[in-house]
Each structure stands twice: as C-alpha cells, then as structure tokens.
C-alpha cells in the first residue's frame, strides 16, 4: 500500500519553488502583470523575489490587508531593480 501524500501549503515548505507562489498570488488577487514582474525578477534574483513573497505572507499573518496587491508587488520589484541595477 502506498502512503497518501498530503498537500503541503505554500508556507509549510522551506524549499525555494516559485510554483508554490501561484496559490498565494491568486489569494491576494495579483494581476498578470504583477505576477510576470515577480517571476521575471525570480529568474535573475531569486532571493529578492522570495523576500517579496515573504513580505506578503508576513502582512497576511499580521492581519494587514493589501489594498492593492499588484501595486505592492510592482513597487517591491522596482525597488529591487533600482537597488541592484539588474535590469536596464
């Protein structure tokens, strides 16, 4: 008999896997452009992109409501780009 695998929530893992972000981005209502911005950032600066997701999870845990999740993601990505000059 094969043991059943329980579905792991996004916050229950310590492995870096952007695919796990999709449910969170759905939950907060992030639009396609914000998702694209975050995933493009993850391709070149995965730790920084993961930090943005962590900030979102932290806000949710603290009970802070993101009035505009997409704007928050865009702003965070822009700040990383300016700080690192990774994009032109």
How would you characterize the overall build of this protein?
The protein has 88 residues and is mostly helical. It has four helices and no strands. It has helices at residues 21-28, 32-44, 46-61, 69-84. The N and C termini lie far apart (54 Å).
- State the shape: globular
With helices defined by DSSP (H or I, 4 residues minimum), what is the helix count? 4
Number of strands: 0
Q: What sequence of helices (H) and strands (E) makes up the elements? A: HHHH
Question: What structural category do the secondary elements indicate?
Answer: mainly alpha
Q: Please give the alpha-carbon distance between the first and last residues.
A: 54 Å
Q: How much is the average pLDDT?
A: 85
Radius of gyration: 14 Å
Short description:
The chain is mostly helical. The protein has 4 helices and no strands.
Topology:
Blueprint (H helix, E strand, L loop, with lengths): L20 H8 L3 H13 L1 H16 L7 H16 L4
Helix pairs in contact: 2-3, 2-4
Defining key terms:
4 helices, single chain, 88 residues, mainly alpha
